[in-house]
Amino acid sequence: MKKDYIKGLIVPIITPIDENEKINEAELRNQVDYIINGGLHGILAFGSNGEFYQIEEDEMERGLSIMVDQAAGRVPVYFGMGAINTKKCIRLAQMAVKHGIGGVSILQPMFLKPSQEELFLHFKTIAESVPETPVLIYNNPGRVGYGLTADLIDKLAHEVPNIVGLKDTSGDITLTEECVRRTRDTDFHVFGGKDTLLYASLCVGAVGGVCTAGNFMPELIGAVYEKYVAGDLKGSLEAQFKLNPVRLAMDRVPFPNAAKDMAALRGRNVGVPYRPSLPTTKESELEYMKKVMTEAGLL
């Protein structure tokens, strides 16, 4: 299975919508080009900041088709899913494979509190339904309410051939490091999932990051990665420090509003979040976003 392309900076692309909450095709195509022209290395369709939990399956397929078509092989397009039900995940994965994706990303089921056996079978069953497609596990305890363990990732990496990577958004750099250490004999690809920890993740062996920041500041998140791989560790760390205040400012408003707020501040026409979420209108929060973005040279 070819998987040498699974590295670098992958962007969980935001989903531009119109006033009827339909995907805005023209602006989605523009956003795909913005990410690619920004020098980043992949697109994750319908990640957390892509608001996957809001989108019906037929609309999701339409959006995926647009992204794959617009990317036109310039970078891989990965498909994210976070359905609770295993059967639904299989259906989504098989749908995505028909569109020529570079891989599938599976979030652990939310709302439930599964056992390790249940989680193993969930991921294994989905992966086996698309045996020729690389599968990445997505660990996001902050949104789901529980985290995945290094033991589980180790077992999946060694027992399911097409589970080839992990996005770790735990913020626990020891966990990221353990997943790297325990799977390094399998050519397993660990990605950092926190923009503020990209440099730290690279230092412990991550192959890249899945970075929301690529939606509105590809030049800053790109500098962290490109300087690191070029051996300029000091420059990479300085780029990380320059980026962090902007990324941390996103936490001042309800999730997932900030990604679209900041994209709009940079002139991106990405629309508003799906309801019930609302764009930020509180002047003090918008002024703070503008302040840190200006200080980072983005405005």
How would you describe this structure to a colleague?
By secondary structure, the protein is of the alpha/beta class. It has one domain (about 10-230): Alpha-Beta Barrel (TIM Barrel). About 45% of the residues lie in helices and about 10% in strands. The chain has twelve helices and eight strands. The protein has helices at about 25-35, 55-70, 85-95, 115-130, 140-145, 150-160, 175-185, 200-205, 220-230, 235-250, 255-265, 285-295, and strands at about 10, 40-45, 75-80, 105, 135-140, 165-170, 190, 210. It has an eight-stranded parallel beta barrel with strand order 1-2-3-4-5-6-7-8, surrounded by seven helices. β7 (about 190), α8 and β8 (about 210) form a beta-alpha-beta unit. α9 (about 220-230) runs antiparallel to α10. The longest helix is centred in the C-terminal third of the chain and has 17 residues, at about 235-250. It is globular. The mean pLDDT is about 95.
| Largest pleated sheet | 8 strands, parallel, barrel
Q: What would you give as the CATH superfamily?
A: Aldolase class I
**Strand line-up of the largest beta sheet:** 1-2-3-4-5-6-7-8
Q: Write down the Rg.
A: 18 Å
- Order of H and E elements: EHEHEHEHEHHEHEHEHHHH
CATH topology: TIM Barrel
Q: What is the percentage of strand-forming residues? A: 5-15%
- Flag low-confidence runs: none
Domains (count): 1
Percentage of residues in helical conformation: 40-55%
The count of β-strands is 8
Measured between the Cα atoms of the first and last residue, the distance is 43 Å
* Mean pLDDT over the residues: 97
DSSP summary: helix tally: 12
Structural class: alpha/beta
CATH architecture: Alpha-Beta Barrel
The level-1 CATH class: Alpha Beta
Shape: globular
